[in-house]
From TrEMBL:
Pfam families: HupE_UreJ (PF04955)
Spans traversing the lipid bilayer: 60-80, 86-103, 110-127, 139-159, 166-185
Keyword Membrane among record annotations: yes
Source species of the chain: Paracoccus aerius
Keywords (A to Z) from UniProt: Membrane, Signal, Transmembrane, Transmembrane helix
Protein name, UniProt field: HupE/UreJ family protein
Tagged with keyword Plastid: no
Signal peptide: 1-18
Amino acid sequence: MKKISIAAALLLPQAALAHVGHHDEGQFLSGLSHPLGGADHLLAMVALGLLAAQMGGRALWALPLTFVGSMVAGGLAGFGGLSFPAVEPMILASVVILGALVAMAARLPLAAMVPGVALFGMAHGWAHGAEGPAAGLAAYAAGFAVATLALHGVGIGAARILERGTALRALGGGTAAAGLALAMVG
């Protein structure tokens, strides 16, 4: 539990620095680094991996692929200038809700989870696309998709190490709490 508290404390100052830097180059590395630059994105993407592993079965691949596919679609919408009302509250809600689902070891039907995950993916993608480069969108999108899949993989790996036990649920609770803290800071 002490390690979880330390990790949360280290991530919270990043909220003020979320998405710093310039994405003008439109390169793969810029897209790759973008999800890593904000605690909100980082926490939600790892939490989704935790949840997918905790649920197991088809959720192990369906939830991450749904998130990434919707994120790319949302990225195109954000880049194209389409509006997404309350995108930041939706992103913060994704952190809290995904963390809470892990903490509760929720066993919702996959058919109920996929639309919610798709909505969260769209919100995260919209933010990436709206903040993205004016040129080189394909390389940038590929970068943020790869980074997101890697973060999902980190969550899946952590869940497998923790073996769906109390520590995994505590990690989910810590994620939800960090999401609430980010909401209060922002």
